[in-house]
């Protein structure tokens, strides 16, 4: 993104209610080139993590004739989202502070076939000796009050540059197709505005119930798979 475009956007959207000080704008100018390289490092970290999952998927499919991963989505947080988070979390605006305090600049979402695969893949990833676990949040065992389910890992992986090895943080979200289906639709609906409070309350309850239904669907599909495998073993 061009610095001019970014500055315009920052002025218009990000800190709408406060006038951006000259000091802040100078900081943005000073930090712009280094921010671009930091973003490139995050893209590299994403490549490393995606490759790790692709390798696991490949190996699993050779060994068990089945792919635990349905799809992988990855993204680097946009610059304006980063700035919004800087403001929301009230952290200092410097590269060091952004890297230190914002854990989801690099995000990898792994969509799995079954819940069991989520834990198997997470374990395999965390056993690798270049992966360091920083934080683990299990929203499958402990769903969020709104119904959200997924396993979140904040990890650190090294990227190898010309003259240095640089550890980078990546947020990994592992979920089933059903969990992803729910989260994607809920995310879209969350931005609907001007809904009366009583109606919003009802809709929130509905969303929690739908999350429960989709979780039980996951369990039933997994039970079907288990029975199929058991039946197959009997024959062979
Ligand atoms: P952030 O500072 O917003 O990242 O919160 P956090 O550090 O407490 O992270 P948390 O584990 O709550 O969630 C991080 C990410 O998970 C979000 O950016 C979303 O991608 C996803 N997420 C968490 N809760 C929900 C939810 O209720 N609905 C949906 N659709 N996604 C969610
Ligand atoms: Mg986040």
TrEMBL record:
Source organism, top-level taxon: Bacteria
List the Gene Ontology MF annotations in alphabetical order: GTP diphosphokinase activity; kinase activity
Instruction: State the pathway, as annotated in the record.
Output: Purine metabolism; ppGpp biosynthesis; ppGpp from GTP: step 1/2
Q: Which GO terms describe its biological process?
A: guanosine tetraphosphate biosynthetic process
Cite the EC number. 2.7.6.5
The record's InterPro entries line, in alphabetical order, gives: GTP_Pyrophosphokinase (IPR052366), NT_sf (IPR043519), RelA_SpoT (IPR007685)
Keyword flag Zinc-finger: no
Q: What is this protein called?
A: GTP pyrophosphokinase family protein
From which source organism is this entry?
Answer: Roseburia inulinivorans
């Amino acid at each position: 993104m061009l610095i001019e475009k970014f500055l315009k956007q920052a002025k218009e959207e990000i800190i709408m209610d406060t006038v951006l000080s000259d000091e802040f704008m100078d900081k943005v100018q000073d930090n712009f080139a280094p921010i671009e390289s930091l973003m490139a490092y995050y893209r590299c970290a994403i490549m490393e993590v995606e490759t790790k999952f692709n390798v696991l998927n490949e190996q699993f499919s050779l060994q068990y004739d089945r792919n635990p991963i349905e799809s992988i989505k990855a993204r680097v947080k946009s610059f304006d989202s980063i700035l919004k988070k800087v403001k929301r979390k009230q952290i200092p605006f410097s590269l060091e502070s952004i890297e230190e305090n914002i854990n989801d600049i690099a995000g990898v979402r792994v969509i799995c076939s079954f819940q069991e695969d989520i834990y198997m893949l997470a374990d395999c990833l965390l056993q690798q000796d270049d992966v360091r676990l920083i934080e683990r949040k299990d929203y499958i065992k402990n769903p969020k009050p709104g119904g959200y389910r997924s396993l979140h890992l904040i990890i650190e992986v090294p990227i190898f540059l010309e003259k240095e090895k640089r550890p980078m943080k990546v947020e990994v979200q592992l979920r089933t197709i059903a969990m992803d289906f729910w989260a994607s639709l809920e995310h879209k609906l969350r931005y609907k505005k001007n809904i009366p409070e009583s109606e919003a309350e009802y809709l929130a309850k509905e969303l929690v119930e739908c999350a429960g239904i989709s979780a039980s669907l996951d369990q039933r599909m997994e039970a079907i798979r288990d029975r199929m495998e058991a039946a197959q073993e009997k024959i062979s």
